Amino acid sequence: MLLDKLFLLVPFGSLFALFFALYLFVTVSRQEPGNARMQEISAAIRVGAVAYLKRQYKGVALFFVVMFIILLLMAAAGNVSIYVPFAFLTGGLFSGLSGFFGMMTATKANARTANAAMKSLNAGLRVAFNSGAVMGLVVVGLGLLDLSIWFTLLRYVWHQPLDVVTSTMLNFGMGASSMALFARVGGGIFTKAADVGADLVGKVEVGIPEDDPRNPAVIADNVGDNVGDVAGMGADLYESYVGSIVATSALAMAAFPQRLWMAAVMVPLIMAVIGVLASIIGTFFVRSGEKAEQKVLLAALRRGIFSSAILIAIFSYFVVRFTLGPANIGVYIAVLAGLGAGVLIGLLTEYYTSSTYKPTRSVADAAPTGPATVIIGGLSVGMLSTFLPVVIVCVAILVSYFAAGGGDFARGLYGIAIAAVGMLSTLGITLATDAYGPVADNAGGIAEMAELPDHVRERTDALDALGNTTAATGKGFAIGSAALTALALIAAFTEKVDGVLAKQAVELGYNYTNLTHTLNLTDPSVLVGLLVGAMLPFLFCSMTMRAVGRAAQSIVFEVRRQFREIVGLMEGKAKPDYARCVDICTRGAQKEMVLPALSAIIAPIAVGLLAGIKAVAGLLGGATASGFVLAVMMANAGGSWDNAKKYIEEGNYGGKGSDAHKAAVVGDTVGDPFKDTSGPSLNILIKLTSMVSVVFAVFILKNALIK
Amino acid sequence: MLLDKLFLLVPFGSLFALFFALYLFVTVSRQEPGNARMQEISAAIRVGAVAYLKRQYKGVALFFVVMFIILLLMAAAGNVSIYVPFAFLTGGLFSGLSGFFGMMTATKANARTANAAMKSLNAGLRVAFNSGAVMGLVVVGLGLLDLSIWFTLLRYVWHQPLDVVTSTMLNFGMGASSMALFARVGGGIFTKAADVGADLVGKVEVGIPEDDPRNPAVIADNVGDNVGDVAGMGADLYESYVGSIVATSALAMAAFPQRLWMAAVMVPLIMAVIGVLASIIGTFFVRSGEKAEQKVLLAALRRGIFSSAILIAIFSYFVVRFTLGPANIGVYIAVLAGLGAGVLIGLLTEYYTSSTYKPTRSVADAAPTGPATVIIGGLSVGMLSTFLPVVIVCVAILVSYFAAGGGDFARGLYGIAIAAVGMLSTLGITLATDAYGPVADNAGGIAEMAELPDHVRERTDALDALGNTTAATGKGFAIGSAALTALALIAAFTEKVDGVLAKQAVELGYNYTNLTHTLNLTDPSVLVGLLVGAMLPFLFCSMTMRAVGRAAQSIVFEVRRQFREIVGLMEGKAKPDYARCVDICTRGAQKEMVLPALSAIIAPIAVGLLAGIKAVAGLLGGATASGFVLAVMMANAGGSWDNAKKYIEEGNYGGKGSDAHKAAVVGDTVGDPFKDTSGPSLNILIKLTSMVSVVFAVFILKNALIK
């Protein structure tokens, strides 16, 4: 039928995105790689980054093998379908690949960006942005590819009913989330350990400038930008993107009459395709003049994002209109609600974290009275900044629920899910504006180390500073969509449990058949789950922050050792042992990432077995609510401290070297794990716990202590 | 009937507590007030403290008048019973009185404690502890008095049915909570503004020791201990104590068959009476030798608490056995669960905040690498410390629910509520061990200012250091019981709404009659409420922390001004203007306390009107969960920073004046608003929002946009 023909758009869109990414990759590679020194540094960074990913994938592979076997056993026991273990693997594989390709491009582009910046600011922007766009398009391209493959196999080769198709696709979301969490946490620990370690000894103790080639941790620091902010973020947003789509289609059956099932499953997929095209078109709007002003550059990126957002807003109307029919045009309102909420959250993030506005200024104002007031100021800005995003998401929830559902419960939930898809439909380009930041950051480092003329560093700094804002915006998108997706997953969870219970209530010893009507907020199991769920993000952040602390400490000792033992290092006569620091960060990150990541998988299962299936639902609700708030708070506090420091470095309150600056540096150091390790991992934590709950629902039902 | 005769125990217990408090007050007053200088200082502190409370009560009185009128109008509109406005007033009045009496005793005892400490450590301990015991007994005495008066009037004078009696008593909980929130927030802002202000200029800038009479803010600092840690805490725990009792009796009707109603209402009241007697007996066990070791002193206080806990554990068995009958002996298990959970949380708090254990040591270990690592370390300790308390409370919830209810929903909820009563039944003595801390703190300050021999300061320091631990424990109790009480209040809320809906569903335009069956966790209104609720504590903490920052800043400027303008101040030739600093703190606290306090009252009403009654239930769930976790995190992080600093001051990592010490001081300063302003206010915030929701439930039902 027509819709099945329409499905062909999805693989087509996927390949189009990947080919355009390839084209951009080639154009980036064609750029001049710069002089020998620059190439040498860039190579060193690439080697370190690849070495890290190799090690990480080895460790993660082990985890995937174990999970794969567990899922096989569960499939054998009839707890999950036989497709689940394999779907789980592919999800992890593609999520990892997204990060890998993005990182390979970034490590190729850094020296080329520095080199292009010698010509002009715009040239530098183009190279950095194009490499970012490669990442953005690879993520959406691979996401659609994975979806296409499974959809084709399940529906057209194995002729499975649609609900089996969607529930299976939901399971590679779990694979993607697992990989994303490892990548985010591991990469986040690496990059911040290197960053903090390099600064504490280099800047503070020895007193050499940032990115000084004499600093043994300088390469590790630049490697960190790639493995954390590029590879980690790529896996993260791949997971968000795919997760929102599969969560939506998983709700399609319950939401619509059978004749509309296929249409309801297609809508998120086709909207994603439109997002791809809109993003590609948007990239052509990103141009800049020679004025190295934040405003000008930001406007350049904004043009790209807004133009694609508008295109999506227009075309998705027709998608909904012609698939679900005019009767369900409310679904389009839901899409707009998500799209709008995403843009608003992005702008708010900028308001709270950019030094051009009051909140971050207030943090800088506190600097003259010392580090304590800076910390208190940043924390309260972060806490304050949770208010409006929560309100916006809540409005988006209510609007999309009532617009799409018109009072119908299941259809309303579908509306909430599709809102998340709408929010992420611009991912191709938003991710481009986000992933280009670390490239510019690296370029700056290379310019410094290769002793390029000052105006080059100025230009790369201008690009980098902007990168901070766009990175914060990207985090806003990730967490905002996570809240909506998580809600959809909670719905998918209860729906699945209901389905099972309806069939097997008796044999499982449950005295009710419909969970969604007994998921009472005053039920003690739900309350217990709620409390544990609210605590989980705090526990997770505690673990990741300690991990950064420990890893950073080992770097501090190593850097001190090298300055002590390598004669002539300070004079620049001898070379530091860069590889050693990279290796220490790698080992540290690998060791430290295991416990936090596993906790996300173990928590819902443990709670379910001890306090019953209702407690799991409570846990998901609690973790989503407190995780969302905590993530926004940490991301914005961190961004605010970072930019407050930069604001002072621009010469305010005595500028660099003043006591106010020292105080601001303390804030920035505290903010590093906030905004680049703990905070951005929370959105994955939320979704992974939900995914795990869905997959293990039947297992928990069968073995829970409290029925 | 028998139970009505049994009720006579309540006023009797109340008066007994009050008379014993009076007796202790007299014994304290009989002590030598010390030399002229000491009396002069003590008088200055008392004058400042009274001046503050006068000002505060004026401001709060205005709020109470307004609320009284609003409630009168609501009563006229038939939204609440006519008793509600008056119950609201008395709750506030008694809550305020608890703080006032406690503070008058504390300000009398401070100089006397210093003086007694000249004789012996034990003498000092006795005076300080007795004054604390006055506070503890006044709180429980007034609580039972308020309950007795209303119970007598409603049941025996106006012959109201029991459900009217309990629902009315629930409403003076709201009055108590409002007063408590103002007292906690106002007092917390005052004490930390003075503390931070005095330290930042005195210690850091000018370099004079703590409590140096030349510091213009030194009196304000000592006043702060009294208005914040004594008056504020008194009002706070009065609210917790009364709240847990009225919440339990409000659930009695639904939980039991009519013949047991009176019994179910009596149980929490009589248990409170037993708690009074047990506490009084416990006070006699508090003695100490001459060894100024923390362990010895702590053991002395422990003896008191544990002995009364054991007495309660024994006698409450008979209470339950003979009121509710052997069939409901499970209620006794619930009491034990609460009692045990309270003790465990207390011990855990000590583990995480005392420098004798690993967590706080780890914070101190981070000091040599600077303030940033201290902050990160303290935050992660605080976050980590939320895990076990949550688990303990969850276990207590499940045990008390299933033990008391045996599967019956309403009776299980009653069990959860009675667990909170069990946890707080030792309040008389736990509060004594808690309130004595600030007295010892003041005594130390007076010893310093009056230049008493060093061994006096050593003894008061020993008492004070212990005070930090007991204070942390007290906060653990307050927040632990708050979680349980809040759950009971949520149940009371839904129950009330159900009752109303059952009657008026049609006319109110609701398409369902039983909320407890539609409070579905996947309902968008509930989810929206959950998100807003989870955000509320963060917003609240942001406001209170900023308030402390602003107030502290104005003190900093004033102290600097006095050092600049008053000639001969540094040389000790001229006297600083103490009153001016007290006045600035007072005005600052009064101005700043309004917004946070009001937000707790406005939030549930606003959310209810915009997103419906279900969103209110969600909000209460979200606020309870995230508020509980955040409160534990802030209290323990703050305590850990404080003791890490003290640990370094004992000579570790270079001791006083070292860079490590400077770093630890930053942590301590950040921790001040954490543990003494924002954190301890959260438990009141949670309960006040619940109380407000109960009182305004009908109003919200009638006027909500989303039905």
Report the uncertain regions of chain A: none
Give the overall form of chain A: globular
Q: Roughly what is the average pLDDT of chain A, rounded to an integer?
A: 89
Taking Cα atoms only, what radius of gyration of chain A do you get, to the nearest Å? Answer: 24 Å
Report helical residue fraction of chain A: over 70%
Explain the overall architecture.
Two copies of one chain form a homodimer. By secondary structure, the first copy, chain A, is mostly helical. Chain A has one domain (2-703). Helix content of chain A is 84%, strand content 0%. Chain A is built from 21 helices and no strands. Chain A has helices spanning 2-7, 9-30, 36-76, 83-119, 121-157, 162-206, 218-250, 252-255, 261-283, 294-323, 330-353, 358-365, 371-384, 387-405, 409-424, 427-449, 454-508, 524-565, 578-611, 613-649, 659-703. The longest helix of chain A has 55 residues, at 454-508. The radius of gyration of chain A is 24 Å and the shape is globular. The mean pLDDT of chain A is 89. The interface between A and B is large, with 82 and 82 residues.
Write the layout of secondary structure elements.
The structure is a homodimer of 707-residue chains.
Chain A: H1 2-7, H2 9-30, H3 36-76, H4 83-119, H5 121-157, H6 162-206, H7 218-250, H8 252-255, H9 261-283, H10 294-323, H11 330-353, H12 358-365, H13 371-384, H14 387-405, H15 409-424, H16 427-449, H17 454-508, H18 524-565, H19 578-611, H20 613-649, H21 659-703
Helix pairs in contact in A: 2-5, 2-9, 3-4, 3-7, 3-19, 4-5, 4-6, 4-7, 4-16, 4-17, 5-6, 5-7, 5-9, 5-16, 6-7, 6-18, 6-19, 6-21, 7-9, 7-15, 7-16, 7-17, 7-19, 7-21, 9-10, 9-16, 10-11, 11-14, 11-15, 11-17, 12-13, 12-20, 13-20, 13-21, 14-15, 15-17, 16-17, 17-20, 17-21, 18-19, ...
